[in-house]
Design brief:
Elements: H1 3-12, E1 15-23, E2 26-33, E3 38-39, E4 46-47, E5 50-63, E6 66-78, E7 88-90, H2 106-119, H3 121-130, H4 137-146, E8 157-166, E9 170-177, E10 182-187, H5 192-201, E11 207-210, H6 214-223, E12 228-231, H7 233-250, H8 252-262, H9 271-295, H10 300-307, H11 311-319, H12 337-345, H13 351-360, H14 367-382, H15 392-400, H16 408-420, H17 423-439, H18 446-453, H19 459-467, H20 469-477, H21 486-498, H22 505-516
Bound molecules: zinc ion (ZN).
Zinc ion is lined by residues 40, 42-43, 45, 79, 81, 84, 86.
């Protein structure tokens, strides 16, 4: 690029190039404003009385593989109006050159905004480095935030839902345009008053899908009394499942007891040890049979024929001495199992930690034996074996699964639980029916369902439906639901992640909305 080109480009934004110097990786441009006078920002009167000069530095787009820095020799003027409170003012560059007090040229700022917008903070920073744009990730995010777009078209059908800014800590409200299937706004909290204000600013809304929580319903009723309210189908489904889980939790005591009876002390034995133990019992019985036959005076040859065991074995048992002759070798862990179990339950679940404790108590065996035991033990904990009762959430899922989809172990669990708490079978039936009504759009069945459900273990769920009857009926018949915006909600969550926890709501709004548009 020739000097005259630089001059022309700078001239367009009101600057004159005084000098260009090249340093390692840098182009340093000295420039000064072309105008001889400047307007006072307070009274607007122009002045050409320069009082002092100062230099401001602007980062610009790179040129010829170099970063470009512009040093503008700017001036301070004396205001000529005697009555103006501003005696001295600094001249302002043309908005085409840079923002007031900005540290980047307007054209650099524009590019930074687009990159921050498309990529977010940290990934954007990686790219800007390669493009020789001198901006940090904070700058990227700030630039995006500064340019929040104003609202789009007027929505007619909206979905309102709460949404975790930080799960378990901060919740906001998400508003979706259900017709256009996108998130259109984010509110900083889930207070009814905040939603009410938003609704007041957005006239023309005819249908509002919201969850069954009272707050949103109240705000919607007050702000747009003419709008139809629809209980959100997705929430209804979720609430019905939650109600079933509550019922399972209430019955957990009986279920736990049933599991305890079904397998008394086996819960404390690992599967491998249980098998060993059973084998040992079987062999002990055979051994006893041999002894009894021998005591009755039956010869070794005949005992071999009757029991099917080898001659050598029978002879050994008859001669006595052995308690468990069939067992290849006894585990050195055998006398320590109780102790291991106690340590395990106290939280020490690692071979390398268990071994020294056993050693200190006199255990003669090696680390390997203990480590292998710990591995087996862990595997047993992982495999949901019927010897331990499942967590309520798991149990609720199993109880709601189709029979054909359960493993053998799971079927046993379900059978034990259902025998212990038959009322859960009823509860599940009622929950299933409610989900059927919703799925098949059968509003006419709602009244009969309600009557049945109000005296069932999921009565509290039914009471909630009774209290919100009109909106629930609308939910069954209406085609609108927040589930339709699943796609943009995923998009929102991924944006939130990209922002690495710096996800301020205005920033998320800024990045969300033009994407939706
Ligand atoms: Zn003035």
């Amino acid at each position: 690029m020739s000097l005259s080109n630089w001059e022309r480009a700078f001239g367009l934004v009101g600057l004159r190039v005084e000098k260009i110097a090249f340093e390692e990786g840098l182009a340093l441009v000295k420039a000064s404003p072309i105008a001889a006078s400047a307007a006072c920002p307070l009274c607007g009167k122009r002045s050409s009385q320069v009082r002092s000069r100062y230099q401001s530095c602007l980062a610009d787009l790179p040129a010829h593989g170099r970063r470009v820095r512009i040093f503008v020799a700017a001036r301070r003027f004396r205001c000529r109006d005697q009555d103006c409170r501003r005696r001295i003012f600094a001249e302002r560059l043309s908005p085409d050159a840079a923002r007031v007090w900005g540290r980047r040229t307007t054209r650099l700022d524009g590019i930074v905004h687009h990159i921050g917008f498309a990529l977010g903070g940290r990934p954007g920073q990686a790219i800007t480095r390669r493009l020789l744009l001198p901006v940090s990730k904070d700058t990227l995010l700030r630039t995006v935030r500064r340019r929040v777009p104003v609202s789009l078209a007027r929505p007619r059908v909206i979905g309102v839902d709460d949404w975790a800014l930080r799960k378990g800590h901060r919740y906001g409200t998400r508003i979706c345009d259900l017709e256009r299937r996108m998130v259109i706004d984010l509110l900083p909290d889930r207070e009814p008053a905040t939603l009410k204000r938003w609704l007041a600013d957005h006239p023309g809304i005819e249908i509002i899908a919201r969850d069954r929580g009272g707050g949103y319903a109240k705000a919607a009723a007050q702000a747009c009394p003419d709008a139809e309210q629809v209980a959100d189908r997705w929430h209804l489904m979720e609430n019905s499942s939650a109600a079933f889980l509550m019922a399972v939790k209430r019955w957990m005591r009986s279920i736990r007891a049933a599991f305890g009876q079904a397998m008394p002390d086996q819960a404390t034995l690992t599967t491998a040890e249980r098998l060993q133990h059973e084998g040992w019992k079987r062999r002990k019985a055979e051994e006893d049979t041999i002894r009894v036959l021998n005591a009755e005076g039956i010869g070794i040859k005949e005992i071999v024929r009757r029991t099917g065991r080898s001659r050598k074995l029978v002879r050994e048992v008859v001669r006595g001495g052995h308690t468990d002759p069939f067992r290849p070798r006894a585990s050195s862990l055998e006398p320590w199992l109780d102790r291991l179990q106690t340590e395990w339950e106290a939280g020490c679940q690692n071979g390398a930690e268990l071994w020294p404790r056993l050693r200190a108590a006199g255990f003669p065996g090696s680390l390997r034996v203990v480590a292998e035991w710990a591995t087996r033990r862990r595997r047993d904990d992982r495999d949901a074996s019927p010897s331990r009762y499942p967590a309520p959430r798991t149990l609720a899922r199993l109880l709601s699964s189709a029979r054909g989809k359960l493993t053998r172990n799971e079927s046993i669990i379900v059978a034990i639980a259902e025998r212990a708490a038959p009322v859960l079978v009823t509860a599940r039936g009622i929950v299933d029916d409610s989900q059927d009504l919703i799925r098949k759009h059968q509003a006419e069945g709602l009244a009969a369902w309600l009557e049945r459900a109000l005296s069932s273990p999921v009565a509290s769920f039914a009471k909630g439906i009774e209290a919100d009857y009109a909106a629930v009926t609308a939910a069954i018949t209406s085609p609108w639901s927040n589930g339709q915006t699943e796609g943009t909600i995923c998009r929102l969550e991924s944006l939130k992640r990209q922002m690495y926890g710096r996800a301020n709501i205005d920033l998320l709004r800024a990045r969300l909305m033009p994407i939706a548009a």
